[in-house]
Please model this.
Amino acid sequence: MQDSNNGWAWFGDAGSDDAGRYLELALCFARCFRSADGELVLQHLRAMSTERILGPGASDALLRHVEGQRQLVSHIYALIERGRGNIGPG
Model:
């Protein structure tokens, strides 16, 4: 019998058993990136991924590579926003 999640369970929102660990991780991301240094790192990640534009001659491999970078940076931003909603200023 084959496992129904095919190894992708970690990719979506955490299930009820892992909700506490997922929130803890989101809080860690929010704390790590709330400093001036963290904001600078986020700006750099965004510039090299989500704001990067490829021309019509870009290879399939390059398109896939950059799309993976974009997804990762987007996931980081989502964790930060989730964590910021659960911590106070500071």
Notes: The chain has one domain: 18-84. The helical segments are 19-32, 36-48, 60-84. The CA atoms of residues 33 and 39 lie 6 Å apart. Residues 18-84 form one domain.
